[in-house]
Design brief:
Strand content: under 5%
Number of helices: 44
Number of strands: 0
Radius of gyration: 34 Å
Distance between the termini: 69 Å
Helix content: over 70%
Oligomer: single chain
Shape: globular
Length: about 1000
């Protein structure tokens, strides 16, 4: 099955942030853990076996192999339903761990192996308990329970010793450890982890021992009570760690078995509430919800509605793959049972007859899904289907070949459905049809995964290596289609690295790279390091293993983009140089690299931070981009035939670069090329430039060039073309506004760049041309709301750019006034047009920002209070109001107090001030950056307030600011992170300098515990 690298880089739309080189040697532990977590046990065991003779695996890692094999086998046993197979795996796990313990003696890792051995004993006991509870084993129930009890006693002894040992080890560490002593911190943390694990296993033993007793016996009840108590103690003692929530979960489960429904639900609902606060806690929520569902259904009030609502919400949000995990199937089963039971309760009421029928239909659908997969609830689901006169799922394949064929067929079906989805998205298909296609696609992918896993389970001595490689490769591909990117990456990388003799190895490597790219893109920007490391390693593997193949060139291109996004232009060029000059992909690579360099330039320019890159570095980025694009465009234009889309995109980028350099005539020479130039093709509505945003970007680039060249009539014609381009589109105003705002942002960046480099001549030309154009447009009766919005936005941005230079404050004020005029016109039109009513609040906010820059303080506050009348809690508006008072404070010092504390004047909406904003955001993790900004601005305004005073009042004010910064520092030495700590440091130096002392800044400030009681403001 083919898989192209086109999906790996540009097509994925990734903005890669950094680059690391491959770590020498085999990433043994990460690879084993990845395979084990993703339940790829066969691959894990094969990898561990190969590692014994793999020279890339260190000797230290090789000594761990029996221990890791024991863990893999133990995990696999826990996921097997067949009792005989489960028993065999537990035998093997115990043998590996026993051998490891015997060989390692008193080695610390041997203690961890004993911990896992205790877990093996627990699993053996669980197997015996399960056997005892089978209807066919009634005669042997007592024997099975006796064996279970014996295993649990062995586990109790081993775990009791482990708990004592790890507890003593943990207690040896001092309460406080020097933060610089990393080895001791790591050792303490490891001891804590081992202690917690031992205690959790010990509590589990008590819960399992209760199952060996008669369900109504006092002995069983006492054991459950002890288990619940121990879980509760773990929760209390380690409540700052994630394990506390798991302990709470198991405590709730034990209480549920004790019949203490209310207490159990309190525990379970607490866990669900905590888990809902973070995506990282999703696995915990998945594990808790089935138990909570059972509790709601068993409650005396029969909380059917609550169970149905919670399960339905989960099922709607979960992927198809998540729905077919053991937790997902349990949730689906309880959802089916809840609907069946609610239907039975409603049948007696004729008003609910139809609702109960709907419940039964949904119960049947859910039960059918559960019945298709082996698991705890499969038999019950099949029984329910029989009651509802439905047909159970077909039997699974029984041979490797049959399962592989079923997997291939399902993937072929998925491929066909994917094409239909693509056609439906680009056509006029209704939402219902598209939704049905997506459900069918997800079902086909899931069937493929299920059959391919089944094939790997059915392999035997006669299975050919090529067949195994294909099954593993197709499994990785099905996981990729299911968007389970980590699982897909691990499975594909196994084939790429360890099946290199297979023709599928290269394709598997591409899937691995694509999966890591997708996983990288899905992570928050500050949590991508691991994905980037894995991605770089597999890209390097492609280049090293298949150096002469096209995939190698594409891999180097991807690495080049990675380095470029990290800001390492030199490394990006080094990777690009690895692609041979005569390679068919080299010209395209140069073109993409030129565009990527331009993208990097825009990214840095948008940051408005001189620390990001020097002026020389920015100039080099621009020059390198222009050089590559010039070369690529010239080569492409020298060839016969119609231009390609990539060529036109490159020409548009080149024109944008020339605009930034002020070479407007050269930019227009490219844009105005007859017949095949960007503007000619847009005017002809050529299909080549009709896709995506190309036409709008081409017209925007031309507008900027015409304005810069002071060709005002042509600029006005381009504006008319823009209106025509979007006239028949439902989102015309939004699209035009986005284009104009983008143009304003580019002008702002150009002004800032010229200010930074001191090019006053070019800056004067740019501003003169734009002012000439704006004045002409403003005098006319603007027909387009987008035009008014653009003028207002751009004038505001240019005002911001000029205001950074104190010498240009008067000029900046004029731009703010022009912006305010445009927004005032826009507001007047919006208040008279019901269709624009929803835009009024946003227009008022933008108008207030221009009024602030124009120093019309009262007018700005009036606009903001109009917004706050309808919604007093809009954060952006409250921030803007505080900023107005802050700016006003430079002319009237007492206004700084309002910036800090807000304004509670009667009969008007309250303005919170920075202090009020910070206090409201303190406990909202999603608003952390806004909280840190408000907290810092309290300190800055307090400093400005102090400077506005004289004598003793000024001295007292400066001292209060220093204490405030000191207080914030003692509570959080990072002071909110790298965005804010340098600002605090500079502010503290300014305070110390104003107080007549030698500035020392933050590093010399020791943490002062008494500062914790200081107030959070300093006025």
């Amino acid at each position: 099955m083919g898989f192209t690298l086109a999906r790996l880089a540009i097509g994925a739309g990734l903005m890669l942030a950094c680059c690391r080189t491959t770590v020498a040697g085999e990433p043994f532990q990460a690879f084993v853990d990845g395979l084990r977590r993703r339940q790829l046990y066969d691959m894990a065991m094969a990898y561990l076996d190969q590692s014994r003779t793999n020279p890339r695996v260190s000797e230290a890692d090789k000594t761990r192999i029996p221990f890791e094999e024991g863990r893999v086998l133990l995990d696999e046993a826990g996921n097997l339903r067949d009792s005989a197979a489960r028993s065999r795996k537990l035998d093997e796990a115990q043998q590996r761990l026993d051998a490891f313990i015997a060989a390692r003696g008193d080695d610390p890792l041997a203690s961890e192996a004993r911990l896992q051995l205790g877990n093996v004993y627990i699993e053996r006991a669980r197997s015996e308990i399960a056997a005892a509870n089978r209807p066919s084993q009634v005669a042997k129930r007592a024997e099975s329970m006796k064996r279970a009890g014996d295993w649990l006693l062995k586990a109790q002894r081993v775990l009791g010793e482990a708990e004592g040992k790890f507890g003593a080890e943990f207690n040896k560490f001092p309460k406080a450890i020097d933060p610089a002593d990393r080895p001791q911190i790591d050792a303490r943390d490891r001891a804590r982890v081992n202690l917690i694990q031992a205690q959790m296993f010990a509590a589990t033993v008590l819960a399992e021992q209760a199952k060996t007793q008669d369900s109504k016996s006092e002995a069983g009840r006492k054991l459950l009570e002890q288990a619940a108590l121990k879980y509760g103690e773990i929760h209390k003692k380690f409540n700052q760690y994630l394990v506390a929530l798991y302990a709470r979960l198991y405590q709730g489960q034990a209480l549920l078995e004790l019949g203490k429904q209310a207490e159990a639900l309190a525990c379970l609902e607490e866990v669900l509430q905590q888990a809902a606060t973070s995506p990282e806690l999703r696995p915990l929520a998945d594990k808790t919800l089935p138990i909570a569902l059972a509790a709601w259904l068993g409650d005396k009030d029969h909380q059917f509605d609550k169970a149905i609502e919670a399960s339905q919400r989960w099922l709607q949000q979960a992927s198809r793959a998540e729905q077919h995990t053991s937790d997902g199937l349990a949730i689906a089963w309880y959802a089916a049972d809840a609907r069946r039971r609610r239907a039975a309760a409603q049948k007696k009421n004729k008003d609910y007859a139809r609702a109960s029928d709907d419940d039964l239909k949904e119960a049947a659908r859910l039960a059918a899904d559960v019945a298709r997969y082996p698991g705890e609830h499969q038999d019950a689901a099949r029984q329910l289907l029989t009651q509802l006169r439905k047909v159970a799922a077909p039997e699974s394949p029984t041979t490797f070949a049959d399962a592989l064929n079923e997997g291939r067929a399902a993937l072929d079906e998925a491929g066909s459905l994917e094409q239909q989805i693509h056609e439906a998205q680009s056509g006029d298909a209704d939402a219902t049809k598209l939704s049905e296609l997506r459900r069918s696609f997800a079902s086909a992918v899931q069937r493929a995964e299920s059959n391919l896993r089944r094939a790997l389970e059915l392999r035997d001595a006669d299975t050919q290596p090529d067949g195994m490689a294909e099954a593993q490769y197709l499994l990785a591909y099905s996981l990729f289609l299911a968007e389970r990117h980590y699982d897909a990456a691990v499975a594909a990388e196994f084939v790429a690295r360890h099946r290199t003799d297979s023709s599928l190895a290269r394709s598997a490597a591409k899937i691995a790279l694509a999966s890591y790219l997708e996983a990288y893109n899905a992570q928050p920007a500050n949590q991508r390091e691991a994905e980037l490391r894995y991605m770089t390693a597999i890209a390097e593997h492609i280049g090293a293993t298949w150096p002469q193949e096209p995939e190698a060139a594409e891999a180097w291109m991807i690495l080049s983009e990675v380095a470029l996004r990290a800001g390492n232009v030199e490394m990006a060029n080094t990777y690009l140089a690895r692609i041979p000059a005569d390679s068919p992909g080299r010209a395209e690579a140069d073109l993409k690299q030129g565009q990527a360099l331009w993208g990097r330039y825009l990214e840095l320019a948008g940051k408005n931070d001189p620390r990001s890159a020097s002026a020389a570095e920015m100039d080099k980025l621009l020059a390198d981009a222009q050089s590559l694009l010039d070369k690529s465009v010239t080569q492409a234009r020298s060839r016969e035939g119609a231009p390609s889309y990539s060529l036109l995109a490159a020409e548009l980028t080149l024109a944008q670069i020339l605009n930034v350099q002020g070479k407007y005539d050269q930019a227009l020479a490219i844009l105005e090329r007859k017949e095949t130039g960007p503007l000619a093709l847009v005017a002809a509505k050529d299909p080549l430039v009709s896709r995506g945003p190309y036409a709008g970007e081409a017209l925007k680039t031309a507008l900027r060039a015409y304005v810069g060249a002071e060709r005002i009539e042509q600029a006005e014609k381009i504006m008319s073309q823009l209106d025509e381009q979007y006239a028949d589109k439902p989102d015309a105003e939004q699209s035009l506004t986005a284009i104009y705002v983008g143009l304003g942002r580019e002008l702002e960046q150009q002004v800032k760049s010229l200010e930074a480099t001191g090019d006053s001549v070019q800056l004067a030309k740019v501003l003169s041309a734009f002012q000439l154009f704006i004045d002409r447009v403003v005098k006319q009766e603007a027909k387009s709301l987008a035009t008014l919005n653009w003028i207002g936005e751009t004038c505001n941005r240019l005002g911001d750019a000029l205001a950074q230079n104190p010498k240009k404050s008067a000029e900046a004020k004029k731009y703010y006034e022009r912006g305010a005029m445009a927004y005032a016109k826009l507001l007047d039109r919006a208040t008279k047009d019901d269709k624009l009513a929803s835009s009024i609040l946003a227009i008022r906010l933008r108008l207030s920002r221009c009024l602030r820059g124009a120093q019309e303080w009262e007018g700005a506050i009036t606009q903001l209070r109009e917004i706050l009348k309808s919604n007093p809690s809009v954060l952006d508006v409250q921030f803007e109001a505080a900023r107005v008072f802050q700016a006003w404070g430079a002319f009237d010092g007492k206004r700084y107090q309002q910036a800090i504390r807000g304004d509670k004047s009667p009969n008007v909406p309250e303005i919170w001030g920075f202090n009020g904003i910070a206090s409201r955001l303190r406990r909202l993790p999603a608003q952390k950056e806004a909280y840190e900004e408000a907290r810092y601005l309290v300190a800055e305004c307090s400093y400005r307030l102090a400077l506005s005073r004289t004598g003793a009042e000024q001295a007292d004010g400066l001292l209060a600011v220093e204490r405030l910064i000191h207080s914030n520092y003692s509570l959080d030495a990072e002071l909110g992170g790298p965005n804010w700590r340098p600002k605090y440091d500079q502010l503290l130096r300014d305070v110390q300098r104003a107080a007549g002392r030698t500035p020392s800044g933050l590093p010399s400030l020791p943490p002062d515990s008494t500062a914790r009681s200081l107030p959070q403001s300093a006025e």
